Records
---
Amino acid sequence: MADDGRGKAGSAGSARASKPAKKRFSDLPKRIASGAVYLIAFLACLYMGPISTMVLIAVVSGLCAYEFYRMMRISGLMPISVLGIVFAICYPITAFIGGQTLMLGLTFILLGILALWYVIYPRVRVTDISVTLFGAVYTGLMLSSFVLVRDGITGYSGGAVALVVFVSVVINDSFAYLVGSRFGRHKLVPRISPNKSWEGFLGGLAGSMLVWLALPFIPAVDVSVVEALVMGAVCGVVGLLGDLTESRIKRGAGVKDAGTIMPGHGGMFDRVDSLILVSFVSYLMLKLLGVL
Amino acid sequence: MADDGRGKAGSAGSARASKPAKKRFSDLPKRIASGAVYLIAFLACLYMGPISTMVLIAVVSGLCAYEFYRMMRISGLMPISVLGIVFAICYPITAFIGGQTLMLGLTFILLGILALWYVIYPRVRVTDISVTLFGAVYTGLMLSSFVLVRDGITGYSGGAVALVVFVSVVINDSFAYLVGSRFGRHKLVPRISPNKSWEGFLGGLAGSMLVWLALPFIPAVDVSVVEALVMGAVCGVVGLLGDLTESRIKRGAGVKDAGTIMPGHGGMFDRVDSLILVSFVSYLMLKLLGVL
C-alpha cells in the first residue's frame, strides 16, 4: 500500500494480471503529457540556438547528477553530491565556451578537489570520491558531447545535426516501446530489464536508422546514405546500452525510478539515459567522418 | 610500539623501540640506490626528448594504475584492472599525439566501455566501475599533464620547464625528509601520515620555491621571479596533498606500500604520488600565465 502503487488503467479499464504492464498503461496520459513538455523544451532550445541548447543540457546534466548521487546515497555510499552536481552543470558550459581544452581542465580540477576532500575528511572513502567522479563525468561530460555536436557546425546545420541525434533517441525509445508492447515475445535481457524484447529492440533500431537517414540532406554535412544508416544502427544499439546501464544503476540502488521530476517517466536520468551515450557516440562518429 | 614510530636521529644511533623508523634507516642504501635509478631514468628520458618522456610517463602511469587497482582489490573492490591500466598507459600517448582532444575522446571511450561492462556482467557494481575510472584518470590522465608541459614549448626550453617541475618535486620530498627528520617537532597530519612535521613541510616548500626560481632563466619562458616563487609555493603545497592522498588510499586498503618495484621506496605510486598532482597544477598555472 505504501510504496508500490499501481494505479487505475488509463482508458481501457480491463483487469490485467501483469502489474508492470498495468502501471505502464495507467500512466500513459501522464507519460505523454510530461514527455511532450520535455520534447517541446528540447526542440525549442535547439531551435533558439547554441546558448539555449547549452543551458538546457547544463540543467539536464545537473538533474541527472542529482538523481545519480541520490541513488548512490540510497546504496550506502557518500558521494560529495554538491560538488558533483556543480561540475556536471559546468561541463556543458565549458564545452560551449572553450571546447575540449576547458573540459579537460575541469576534469583536472575536479580530481584535485576530490584529492583535497579525501585528505581533509577522514570518513570519505575511495569509493565515495570515485563515485563522485563517475557521476559528474557520466552525466555532465558525456552530455556535453551534445553541445559539441550542436556547435560543431555553425548555423542551422549544426542545429539540424543535433536534432537528428536527439530525435533518433526519442524515436528509438518510442518505436521500441510500441513494437515491443505489441509484438514483443522474445525477452532481450530479462535479468536487467524484464520488459524489453528483441522485437522492440529491432523496432527501435529501425526507427533510429530511419531518422539518421535525414543526415545526408542537411546542408554542409557530407555523409553518404550508407554512412548515415550505419550511424543510425550504432546509435540504436548504444541507446539500448545507455538505457540498460541506467537500469542496472537503479537495480543496484533498489529503486524503481531515478527521480520524480517527470510524471510517468520517473526522473530526468530515466529519460535521457540513452541520450547520454548516443550523444557521445554520435560526436565521435561525426568527428571521425570529418563532419564536425 | 606498533603504529606510530618516530625514529633515530640521523647520525646519533641510540636504541629505540619504533619499527618503521628503524626500517626507514636500515633501508637507506637501498632507498638511495633505487632512488638514483629512478632519478637517472627520468632525467635521461627528459634529456633525450619528447618521445622518451612520453614513453616514460606511460610506463609510470601503467605501474601506478596497477598498484592502485591492487590496493582496491585488497579493499574488497573489483575494478576492471586491465582496462584501467591500458587506459592509464594510453593517456600519455594520446596527450603526445593529439593533445587534449584525443585525451577527452579516450575518456569518452573509457566511459562507454565501462557502461558496456557494467551491463554485461551482473556482479560488477557501480563502485567497481567508478574506481576503475578513478584509477585510470587519477594516474594516467593526471600524469599526462607532464607530457603536455614537456610538449607545450618546443625544443630544449620545454624540456627545461618539465625538468623544473620534476626536480621541484624531488627537492620538495628530499628537503621535507631531511629538515623533518632533523628538526621535526610539530606534527602536521598525525592521523594520515604520522611522520610528517610542519618543519619538514616548510623545508620542502622552500626547496620547491628555490627550484622554481630557475624558471625565469629558461629561454622562451616569460615569467617574473615573483610568479615563479608563487608557483613553487603552490607546487610545494600540492605535492604534499598528492602525498597525503596516496597515504590515505594506502591506509584505506591497509597496506604500507603501494607496491614493491622500488626497493626502499615501495611502489611507483609511492614515488610519484606528489608528481601526479604537481604536474597537473603546474600545467594549469603555466597555461594560465601563457607560458604553454
Note: The first strand of chain B starts at residue 187 and ends at 189.
---
Amino acid sequence: MFQNHTALTNAQTLFLTPSDVVSIVHAHGLPKVLAALAAYVQDDFLRWAQFDKSPRVAAHSPSGVIELMPTSDGELYTFKYVNGHPGNGQFGLPTVMAFGVLADVATGLPLLVSELTLTTAMRTAATSAMAAKALARSDARSMAIIGNGAQSEFQAAAFAQIVGIREFRLFDIDVQATAKLARNLRAMGLDAVICGSTREATRGADIVTTITADKSCATIITPDMIEPGMHINAVGGDCPGKTELHADVLRAARVFVEFEPQTRIEGDIQQMPPEFDVTELWRVLSGASIGRSKGAAGQSEVTVFDSVGFAIEDFSALRFVREAALELGLGSRIDLVPPLADPKNLFALLGEVPATLHSRRSVCYG
Amino acid sequence: MFQNHTALTNAQTLFLTPSDVVSIVHAHGLPKVLAALAAYVQDDFLRWAQFDKSPRVAAHSPSGVIELMPTSDGELYTFKYVNGHPGNGQFGLPTVMAFGVLADVATGLPLLVSELTLTTAMRTAATSAMAAKALARSDARSMAIIGNGAQSEFQAAAFAQIVGIREFRLFDIDVQATAKLARNLRAMGLDAVICGSTREATRGADIVTTITADKSCATIITPDMIEPGMHINAVGGDCPGKTELHADVLRAARVFVEFEPQTRIEGDIQQMPPEFDVTELWRVLSGASIGRSKGAAGQSEVTVFDSVGFAIEDFSALRFVREAALELGLGSRIDLVPPLADPKNLFALLGEVPATLHSRRSVCYG
C-alpha cells in the first residue's frame, strides 16, 4: 500500500462528499454501480476467513443509536460510523446517516474519508440482491416492498438489475412514502403497484423485502402471508429490540445470515433460541453450504435472508467508491494528518513558539 | 444540541485540519491551551458517572495497531481513530496519527471532524500534568523525561505550566531525539539537561515521565532508580505487550489509573495480578479517594500514574477544539451528510435517473 500513500503528497487523505458519490452513480448509471457493489461484496465474502470480524460497537440512547463498524483484511482497515434515529424527520435529517474511513494497515494512514449515507443504501441493496440471487427461486419476477422509506428505491433498482424482478408491490403505513417510491420507480421505468396492506402486497409475491424503520419488535410478516417458494429479504430488523418477522415465519423457513454472532444480537433471529439453525451466506456463495434446495423441493422451500448489515459490506463499498473516484478524478484532498519533516518532531508543527516561560539554559551535569 | 446543527446549514460538519489546531495554539499560546485542556479533562473526569465507558476497540497487525475509542455523556458522542506504528519513521509518517469526530446524540449528526495527532499529544500532556498536580509533591521542580519523541515537548510544556517544573532531565537511546527535545525546550525558555542514561536522568528528579515508543515489555525504570517521594508519570506503556516499569516499581508505589478495566489490559499493570490495588484518578480529583498522603508520610510516598489514554480525554479535547475554533472562526465546513428536502427520499439525491430498465406502469389490483 506504500504506493498509495506516496501518491497523496504530504499524507493527504482523499475525501468524498455525497455529491462525489452521486457523480460516480451518474458516470456509470445506478444499475451498473449496484452490480459492481454486489460483485465487490461477493468477492470479499468469498475471502471471509481473511477478515477480522467483530460485532459492531453501539451507543444506544433514548432517541436512537450510533454505531462503529470496523473490519480489516490485514492490508486495508475500514470502519463505518452510522446512526439510526427514527425521529430525525422532524429535524429535516435522514433516519440513517453514515460516513466511513479506509486506512492502510501497514502504517495506519487514513487513505479515504467518504460519505456513506447514500453508499450504505446502495451497498445494502446490492447485498440483498446478491443474497437473493443465491437464495430465491431463479424464476422470481415479483417483489413486495414493505416499508417505503429512504432505502426502498435502491432495493428495487438492485433487484431489477441483479435478480431480474419486473414488478414491485408497495406498502407503507405512510401513504406518502409509498407514493414517493412509486413515483421514483416509475421514473426508473420499473413497474410499481401501490397496495393497501402488507397482506395485499405480499399476495403472490416471489420475494418479500421488509425494510421498515420502527425501533420495536413489530410483526410485519405473519405466517399466513407466507407462500411456498417465497424468499424473504428482511432488512429492517437490525438492532436489539427491532424485528419484523413472526417467529413462526422463521421456524418455517431456512434462514441465512451475514455474521452469525452479530445477527443473533441484532437480527430477526434475536427472538429465537441460540440453537436455532442458521447458515452464513458466504458459505452458500463459496459452495460450502447449500442455499435453496435443487429441484422440486427447492421450488416450495421458504428462504429468509436475515440481514443486519455487516462491516465487510462497508469495506467492499469503501474499496469500490475509492477506486471509482480515483478512476474518475473525483473527490478532494484533505489534511487529516500533519505532514512532518521529522516524525519525532511533532512540536515543529507549531513553528515559532508564541509564549515562553523561562530563559535559563544548562548542560548535563549528572 | 438542536441550535448547534441548525447553525450548520445543510447539515454541514465543521472540519479542523492540523493547521487549524496550530492556529488555536498560536492564538492563545501553548501554555494556555494546555491549561485549558487540563481544565476540560478535569471537568469531564469530575462527571465520570455520566459517561458511557468501554475499553477501546483495537485491530492489531504485525506493524502496529489501529484503535477506535468511543464515548458519550448522553448529549455528545465522540470517537477517536488512532494508530500506533513504531516503524512509520521510514515512511516519513508519525508513529501516532489520529483524528476524531464529535456528534449530537439526539440526532446522530456528526458536528465536527478534527485532526487529533497534534491534539492528542496536547491532551495527553495536559492529562499527565493534571494527574501530577493531584499526585506529585507540591514542591516538585525537576522532571526526568525518558523517551524524547514526538510527545515529549508537550509533556514538558504542560508540566512547566501546570505543575511548576523548572528543570527537565532528558534521555533517549536516540541521541538526536534528545538533541531535538533540548533545542525545542530551550526555544520555549525551559531548562533542558541532556543525560547519558535513564539512571542519570532520574537521579534526584522529583517526577519521572516515561514516554518511550517500543512495542515490547521493556524495563525502562528499575527499583534502584526510585527515590522517596517520586511521582512516576508512565505514559508509554499503553497497549498489550508494551510496558515500561519493573513490577517491583509498581509494588513499591501507590498506583493511579484512568479507567481500570482498560488499564488492566493495556497499562503497566498488565504485568500485575488482577487483585493488584489501583485507584482511578477521578476518585482523587473528586475527593472520593486520597491521592498522595498528607504530611511527612506523603513526602516519601512513591506514586505512579499508569496512563494509557482514555476516550473521555479525547471527548474533552474535541469539545475544546470545537469551542476554540468556533470562537476564533477557524475551520471549514464539509459535506459529510447529504442535505435532504424529504428525509425519506434519499433517492432524490441522484436527481434525474441516468439509466432506465423498463417502462410499463400499473396500478394496484391486489
Note: Residues 28 and 215 of chain A are 35 Å apart (CA to CA).
